[in-house]
Specification:
- It catalyses: L-citrulline + L-aspartate + ATP = 2-(N(omega)-L-arginino)succinate + AMP + diphosphate + H(+).
- L-citrulline binds at residues 87, 123, 127, 175, 259, 271.
- This is Argininosuccinate synthase.
- Its EC number is 6.3.4.5.
- It is a single chain.
- With 401 residues, the chain is an alpha/beta fold.
- The protein has three domains: 4-170, 3-Layer(aba) Sandwich (Rossmann fold); 179-353, Argininosuccinate synthetase, chain A, domain 2; 361-396, Single alpha-helices involved in coiled-coils or other helix-helix interfaces (Up-down Bundle), CATH 1.20.5.
- Helices cover 43% and strands 20% of the residues.
- It contains 14 helices and 14 strands.
- Strands 3-2-1-4-5 form a five-stranded parallel β-sheet, with helices on both faces. Strands 10-9-8-13-14 form a five-stranded antiparallel β-sheet.
Length: 401
């Protein structure tokens, strides 16, 4: 029986070229698996046919949209996940769900190897291979683009010489990855970090400076999950899609950053994540109203570590699984509504209300109905600062001052 290799297929340059490389180098049959994670753009049937045209013997399209939104984007939202305080894990979140389907396809088609089209410089090689090892330790992994040492220019030449039906050309050298949670653009002239991004790079967002009317939105949350927008019930996927449309129209969610990759190099990336950034802003504000102070402080630490694990390709790690349990527990009272005004690239919260609120108007007010007993504050302040006061007195005594 001819060996079979399952390839994670995106429809782009690297994976299209990889089909021919694998067949030539190994003699194996290539099973291309493309995942619909809400990336939009080309029709998935067109991508499936492209895989066949590039030499795959089978091509499968898996609809992962709801699974991705519910089981990957939602936990990221509840963790307030922003790598380096800016990047909402656009690509990192989609890799583990794709790997789940690759591993299942390998089982279904009797393949012993899973292949990906990642280079040796990026994060995705780590995310794919570590996740494959976590879910199916017996599967072998093949990385033809990385292991052949073929540069992007050579890959473009390879594709042009064989007339492969792909979009990437010398005049359009960008590497683009997108899904419903956001869009990432790199390479080309962006590799010079002095060059500013041009408007043609963007697809999910409109120019923030363009004149338009502000958009006010009401987002309802239940246990940290958006369940309605302007009173209309939505699934997680629908919430992201609607906020992509509305926040994107206001130019929200553009990110230009130099980030620290897993492999140790710094990389310049352009991201668009309008729905993600608007939902994150709303969720954080509702947590400000509903989480107890010490719980909220510790959740920041846990959320940051969770984000780093996901960025580093450790979605299926034991620590990530343990942190999931803590983060899920923090969401039980994150219920209520957030009113937000979106305009000119910003999403500003203007109202919050929750039956689970820890905000007490009568304690917070300075008006006559104030129920806070200020007479208790003097002793509290003295005790709170006592250890610092004693330490300072000790230092002065020891120094002889």
């Amino acid at each position: 029986m001819t060996e079979r290799i399952v390839l994670a297929y995106s429809g782009g340059l690297d994976t299209s070229v990889a089909i021919g490389w694998i067949a030539h180098a190994t003699g194996a049959e290539v099973i291309a698996v493309a995942g619909d994670v809400g990336q939009g753009g080309e029709d998935m049937e067109v991508i499936r046919q492209r895989a066949l045209d590039c030499g795959a013997v089978e091509a499968v399209v898996a609809d992962m949209r709801d699974e991705y939104a519910d089981e990957y984007c939602l936990p990221a939202l509840q963790a307030n996940a922003l790598y380096m305080d800016r990047y909402p894990l656009v690509s990192a979140l989609s890799r583990p769900v794709i790997v789940k389907h690759l591993v299942q396809a390998a089982k279904d088609f009797g393949a012993s190897t899973v292949a990906h089209g990642c280079t040796g410089k990026g994060n995705d090689q780590v995310r794919f291979e570590v996740s494959i090892g976590a879910l199916a330790p017996d599967l072998k992994v093949l990385a033809p683009v990385r292991d052949s040492g073929m540069s992007r220019d050579k890959a473009i030449i390879f594709a042009e010489e064989r007339d492969l039906p792909i979009q990437t050309t010398r005049s359009n050298p960008y590497s683009i990855d997108q899904n419903v949670w956001g869009r990432a653009v790199e390479t080309g002239f962006l590799e010079d970090i002095w060059n500013g991004p041009i408007e043609d790079l963007y697809d999910y967002t409109q120019d923030p400076a363009a004149a338009r009317e502000p958009d006010e939105v009401l987002i309802t949350f239940n246990q940290g999950k958006p369940v309605a927008i302007d009173g209309r019930p939505v699934t997680m996927l629908q919430a992201i899609e609607e906020m992509n449309r509305r926040a994107g129209a206001q130019g929200i969610g553009r990110i230009d950053m130099v980030e620290d990759r897993v492999v140790g190099i710094k990389s310049r990336e352009i991201y668009e994540a309008p729905g993600a950034m608007a939902l994150l802003a709303a969720h954080r504000e509702l947590e400000n109203v509903t989480l107890e102070r010490e719980q909220a402080r510790f959740k920041q630490t846990v959320g940051q570590r969770w984000t780093e694990l996901v960025y580093d390709g450790l979605w299926f790690s034991p620590l990530k699984r343990s942190l999931d349990a803590f983060l899920q527990d923090t969401q039980q009272h994150v219920n209520g509504e957030i009113r937000m005004t979106m305009a000119h690239g910003t999403a500003v919260v203007t109202g919050r209300r929750s039956e689970s609120s820890l905000y007490d108007f009568n304690l917070a007010t300075y008006d006559a109905q104030d129920t806070f007993d200020q007479s208790m504050a003097k002793g509290f302040v003295q005790l709170w600062g006592l250890n610092t006061k004693m330490a300072t007195a000790r230092d002065l005594r020891v120094s002889g001052q």
